[in-house]
Amino acid sequence: MDLPTLQQQCLACRRCALCETRTHVVFGQGAPDAEVMFVGEGPGASEDAQGQPFVGRSGQLLDHYLEAVDLDRKTNVYIANVVKCRPPQNRDPLPEEADACLPWLRQQFSLLRPKIVVCLGRVAAQQLIAPGFSVSRDHGKFFDKHGTLFMATYHPAALLRSPAGKPVAFGDFVALREKIAQVCERTY
């Protein structure tokens, strides 16, 4: 299987109740050979309307940080979410929604085989790194899970609500750039 085939299957997903209120499935976007994968919690209103991850105000901030460390969603990273459909009022995904959607993310991960996964926010970090993960305590640290490095940083939407965290998050992206130089084969 390849990413386009997986995406076509995902677009027809009806595994949980989120399918009833979505406008679009937000499968993911980026370079199919990316060694760095970013994972958020789920689509917001702009993402649901356009069918692409991180395209609203938080996506603009994410793009700014990516550009600052020579990353770009079109050429060298892949961006996805824990859930592929927007939870109502942008609430956190319910456990059963995340459980229903995680097989899609696992298949994306299996096809991409990234060397580094960056969790954007608490929900993604608790799903992918550890259930009790604290972004405020452990942001910017790398964790090796079966040969893949995982790191979490603040979700861009949280930074828009609390701009004082932006320098800390930028430091996480600088640490990411240094780790990419150590472990990735592609030149960034």
Automatic annotation (TrEMBL):
Residues 27-174 form the Uracil-DNA glycosylase-like domain. Signal peptide: none annotated. InterPro entries: UDG_Type-4/5, Ura-DNA_glyco_family4, Uracil-DNA_glycosylase-like, Uracil-DNA_glycosylase-like_sf. GO terms for biological process: DNA repair. Its EC number is 3.2.2.27. One of its GO terms (molecular function) is metal ion binding. Keywords: 4Fe-4S, DNA damage, DNA repair, Hydrolase, Iron, Iron-sulfur, Metal-binding. The keyword Magnesium does not apply. It is an enzyme of class 3 (hydrolase). It catalyses: Hydrolyzes single-stranded DNA or mismatched double-stranded DNA and polynucleotides, releasing free uracil. Transmembrane segments: none annotated. It comes from the Bacteria. The keyword 4Fe-4S applies. NCBIfam families: UDG_fam4 (TIGR00758). Belongs to the uracil-DNA glycosylase (UDG) superfamily. Type 4 (UDGa) family. This is Type-4 uracil-DNA glycosylase. It comes from Candidatus Gemmiger excrementipullorum.
